[in-house]
Automatic annotation (TrEMBL):
Segments forming domain Cation/H(+) antiporter central: 495-618
Protein's UniProt name: Cation H(+) antiporter 24-like
BP terms from Gene Ontology: potassium ion transport; proton transmembrane transport; regulation of pH
Species annotation: Olea europaea subsp. europaea
Gene Ontology cellular component list: endomembrane system; membrane
Topology class, membrane: Multi-pass membrane protein
Phylogenetic placement of the source organism: Eukaryota, Viridiplantae, Streptophyta, Embryophyta, Tracheophyta
Amino acid sequence: MVKIGLAEPSELIQKGFLVCHEKHTSHTFGVFHGQNPLEFSFPLVLLQVVTFIVIARILRFLLKPLRQPMVVSYILGGIILGPSVLSRKKRFREYMFPEDSDFVLKNIGVIGFMYFLFLSGVKMDLSVIKRVGKKHWYIALSGVLVPLCTTGITAIILRKSQEKELATALSVLGVSSALSITAFPVLYPIVRELNLLSSDIGRMALSTAVISDIIGIQGIIMFEACKQGEERTTTALWYLISLIVVMVSIIGGVRQAMLWIVRTTPEGKPVDQIYVIGILLGVLVAGFVADMGGLAMANGPLWLGLAVPDGPPLGATLVQKSETIIMDLLMPFSFIFVGMTTDVYSIITQWSHLQPLFYMALVAYMAKTVSTLIASRFFDMSITDSFTLSLIMSLRGEVELLLFIHWMDFKMIAKPHFSMLVILTVTVTSIVTPLISVLYDPTRPYMVNKRRTIQHTPPNTELHIVACIDGEESLAGVFNLLEVSNPTINSPFKVYALRLMELEGRAAPVFIDHENQENGSDADFNSVYNALKIFEEASGKYIKIHSFTTITSKRSVYQDICELALVKKASLIILPLYKKHLNNFNGTELLAQGNISVNANILKHAPCSVGILVNKGSCYKKHLVNSSARLSAHHFAVLFLGGSDAREALAYADRVAANPDVSLTVTRFLTHNNEGENKMEKKLDDGLVTWFWVKNERNNQVVYQEVVVKNGLETIAAIQAMNTVYYDLWIVGRKHGINPALLRGLSYWGENNELGIIGDFVASADFGSPGSVLVVQQQILRDQESASGSF
């Protein structure tokens, strides 16, 4: 008999039978030739991965409201395709997943895991070990050693009821080590999905996970070495020699070559494509070398990733060019293979043999949670934060699945054990993740009850300002705004300049204090940092600048901004937003969309007032404005429509009015017969306007006027009539407390809700003013309406 395309050993082959089946060829000539595409390997592979992606995305859509991470959808998608659900039907299994397709799925799936670990290694920053304090080390040690010991004790107690292979001391060590670690590659994607990267808990969890990985890897290396030496002791020796040679080659050779690539790449330029291709091919080489030396195939890519300098230019380029294809194309094969190997029905039939391993895993997870909780409480963390950290450290995912596959290769466990461990993994993660999001709100500390506004800042006191800088383009606008805001010797400005940089090519966010750290002169920040220093020196004693840099994701950057404003007791956050008119296209403008989502989160959670500076690129041009007393260099306009935001804008304008180089026009908008007025808001508005007018009555550079309108169209018309005069800066309150009658009929106008209706109109190309715009929002107090504050 001739064997055609013999598949992997099945139960029949193990019993002595020879199974013959038709070998799948690669390509079909099409259904019009009477051929079934599913009988050909290439269309079949495409159908398998497309089917999985569709199922996984549907699950993602259904589970996202339940705050489930993407990895849960992927694992469940594989299980649904596998023998637990769809492939339990013989006809579906034969057509979609014939036996000879398992080989393809497993190999591409392992390649997916290899590149996943490589990418995780690129993003990891091992230098965090030097920066963290004793607290992180103690929490990591207790989170690894306690479950390691308790799992080992549990295994000894249940040794008689365990299967022979799992009852050995070596298997107990391997299982205990794997169940005790917290894998950074698993934690990072979930923490990012929960938007906790820049939170205190998120930073601590990622740092602790790196330490945990370093500790746990030692146990896994010991297990691998002992496993290699089971038959011959010299094999274990050769394993250790191979390990040392590979590590020295990567650190001493590959790492130095990558540092050379970084040095030879011009600043601000991407890495040459040839280097990127070479490194990505090197992942396969590293896997081959590691597997050849018995080091486990996935270890080589992980170590290679750790050798890549994180962040730009090399690490960022590798992540940008490979992450999508790895996570969305290769990893689906990994989860399909896991799902096809998982059979929940085998758990039921083999439960008596699975109980010891189940209890070991359960004890490990519980011990890890409790030990991390106790260690966190020992360092005076709150109950909520401690419990949240312990839950984060209990998350499971891709790394655990790869270890389970590795155990199957060692024949330590069979498919029923593997299935149970996969179900445990997805169950723990699916329960823990929603609990984390419910327990921990990263915005909770920012909502304070104490007034931190310009309006409520006492006179002749230092004003604290957080100025956000997302590039050299925003420097000129911020400098000009600070300069004309009239800092004095009695009321100086303390400015906390925060350089915003997007997290690229690394996982852990970085917050740098340039005044107190050695890396304060980071090359990426040099030009901005030097410009800030020059501006501070030119300002004399009136403005003091403290420089910071945050490197984090756009979703999480608002947390660093709000945290800095909270700690430094700032009264105002200045946010840049760009609108640049295109001269060749009438009414067309470019808007920096990347800032909009960031600004929206800050407006929602800021612990103080916020000013959005729309810099059109022509801010504060030097020109002379005729005033009744003298010629002023700048002319500002305040649009006062009432409400807390308008009062904050007027309070800021009052500071500006004392600047002899500024002439100020304040226009208050009132409704006909006081229609739609809120009595409390009207009273507060009248009080502040009266105080402002009495204070500036003799200031000939201040003009106050009132306009009575009936609806929003008349409001827009009145503002448009003011545009006949050139203004360098328009100052307007955002939206809170505005009389709705003043905006009646303008509901269609709202391209940018962050600026409010009036702010968006004044900043638009339709308005036609070249002047920049400052949109002000007064601090929103927790559990209070914006109008409840008193003058």
